[in-house]
Batch of 3 targets.
Target 1
Amino acid sequence: MSGKAPAPRVVILSSRSIFVEGIAAHLRQKLDDQSLLVVDVQAAGALEQVIAAQPSAIILDASEAGASQLCDVGALLKALPAVTLVRLDPELEQVQVVTSEQRTLQQMQDLVDVIRTV
């Protein structure tokens, strides 16, 4: 065994909003700790940190000012073509899942189910 920690399956891009921190806390209860990485979208090198983690899913708050601008979604999708991008928008009460398929999520368990399938 190499002793190297497993790569996180899910990365959450956060500006530390209460909404995103609540999502992270809930997912920590549902997923093991090593499957989840929270990256401060305002930190230097955030994009590189996400790409280096090679996650299967990235969650971001679409309502956070600058979340998409500070961490270029296009660059993420180019560097990680198989990634599932989950954009949460609490203001519009919508979740957008960007993959080759589209799903409607109504409850927190729906989000957990999507993450477990990636």
Note: The chain has a mean pLDDT of 79.
Target 2
Amino acid sequence: MFRVLVQVFIEKLLYSCPDIDKIYMLIREKKGQSIRERMTKIVADPLFNRLKDKRPGDLDKIVLVPGDITVPGLGISEENETILTDKVSSFSDNIMEDGYKK
């Protein structure tokens, strides 16, 4: 369920707001999958076909930020923290109602 919400949110933002420069996505490794592998799985869903057909380059606007919401400072490196502080103008989180589960 959580992944579906993230997919819908990202696709809708990219498709409806073509002027968005970047979407910084905090993502962690999970079950031996790298963040890149996890992202590949997310955008492989047919939900992204409309975007892939009309504006495939928009998927390159997604910038993966390695991190983990269960650790102090979200597990973000100092370098990424600086980038986020300088570049991000809006923030949204998606946490399941019953709490974060690994």
Note: The chain has one domain: 2-87.
Target 3
Amino acid sequence: SEEWLNSVYFSNWPDFGSHKFNTSVLIMLMQKPLQIVILKFMVVSMEMFVMVLIYLKFIIAEGDTLVAYIQI
């Protein structure tokens, strides 16, 4: 997540060790964050996407009812 990348960026990672490790961290930090776009309209965070998947799994598991509640 973005918070994790910020934690890595602001840590003392250049002093951690090998050149290979530092190169790997740089490559990771240079990657574009994953964006999930719904209907070319709205960007959804990974956390929200996972919550929706869990919610849908719950509804499918219930089978006979489509009434369920989710707390955000």
Note: The beta strands are 36-38, 42-44.
